[in-house]
Amino acid sequence: MKIWVIGDIHGCYRSLMALLEQLQLNSDDVVISIGDLINRGPDSESVLKLFSENAQFDSIIGNHELAFIRWFHSDRSRKIDDFEHIARQPYAERWLSWMRNRDVLKKIENTYLVHAGLWPHWTLEQNQEHADTLKYWIQSASQEDFDQIGSMFDLAITEPLKSEPYLLQISFYINVFLHMRFINVDDKSLHLARKDIPGLGEESIFESQPWYMIDSQFEKKLPKVVFGHWASLGGVSGPWYTGIDTGCVWGKGLTAYEVYSGLIKFQPALDKHIEIGG
Ligand SMILES: [Mn+2]
After folding, report:
1. pLDDT tens digit sequence for 148-158
2. What is the distance in A from the centroid of ligand 1 to the CA of 228?
3. Ligand 1 centre from 63 Cα, in Å?
4. Quick one: average pLDDT of 154-172?
5. Ligand 1 centroid to 37 CA: how many Å?
6. For the chain, what are the domain ranges?
7. CB 142 within 8 A of CB 62
8. From the CA atom positions of the chain, what is the Rg in Å?
9. Strand bridging mode 182-184 / 190-191
10. Residue 146 carries which DSSP code?
11. What's the predicted TM-score (pTM) here?
12. Whether the predicted pLDDT of 241 surpasses 50
């Protein structure tokens, strides 16, 4: 049995089909998306249909799924073409509830799957606990909760104190597990504005570092943390982490990572893609 984890697909259905062909799946193999199945690319609907309707396929949640869930529960006055197209499909409600029930952090033996990353200042167990809290919040949030959280994303840049409002803590969990790239070294706060490639940006490494470069307890425990979300890295790997977003929707390609063997397969992008910076 193999467990293949697939990087950010973003509606790139043709590339996905070609990658799956490379994998030559057996009937007991499993395919898990690292999140961001939808949006930006040409065919989010076919990707959603495949992952939500087949027992062999699963996904964790990405920030684009959460954005769709929030938009669907809003008054939908914000015009988002891709979201409107998904919402018009006959199975939209079913897809929505499937998305709302995905894991934020999925553990398979010693391997952790998460869309953006783990907070290095928490233990693995604390990361799992907070990710599960976020999962249950997403499952049960009301329209009002979603409306309120929308305005909070920038407020919880540093870890909120336990005495602070629950929604502030939830917004921090969203930022960590679904949006994080860089962490400010001095005050251990999230640096959400920075999206460049580490080492090539203008900012010094002494100011902010990729979350997986921050000194953490993970190194001692040597889990395998597999993440997506960060296309400009073009795939990255270290002693305990592997980034598998290789920018399919930006014209590069789609990556699959096999959990037990660490084997990687790459499929160059076949879908009509968007231009970088577009
Ligand atoms: Mn993402």
Report:
1. 988 788 888 89
2. 7
3. 5
4. 90
5. 9
6. 3-268
7. no
8. 18
9. antiparallel
10. H
11. 0.95
12. yes
Cα 231 to middle of ligand 1, angstroms: 9
Nearest alpha-carbon partner for 51 in 21, 81, 17, 85: 17
Residue 146 CA, distance from chain mean position: 19
Number of Cβ within 10 Å of residue 56's Cβ equals 14
Q: What average pLDDT does range 1-9 have in this prediction?
A: 98
102 CA → ligand 1 middle, Å: 15
Q: Do 34 and 61 contact (CB within 8 A), yes or no?
A: no
Ligand 1: distance of its center to the CA of 66 in Å?
A: 10
> How far is the centre of ligand 1, averaged over its atoms, from the C-alpha of 203 (Å)?
22
CA of 10 to the centre of ligand 1 (A): 9
Provide the 3-class DSSP secondary structure of residue 231.
helix
CA of 64 to the centre of ligand 1 (A): 6
Q: How confident is the model over 44-84, as pLDDT tens digits?
A: 999 999 999 999 999 999 999 999 999 999 888 888 888 99
The highest-level CATH class for domain 3-268 is: alpha beta
Q: What is the mean pLDDT of residues 124-151?
A: 94
- Judge contact between 9 and 28, C-beta under 8 A: no
Written as six digits, the tokens of 125 are: 């167990």
Alpha helix (H) ranges present in 43-156? 44-53, 63-72, 81-87, 92-100, 124-140, 143-150
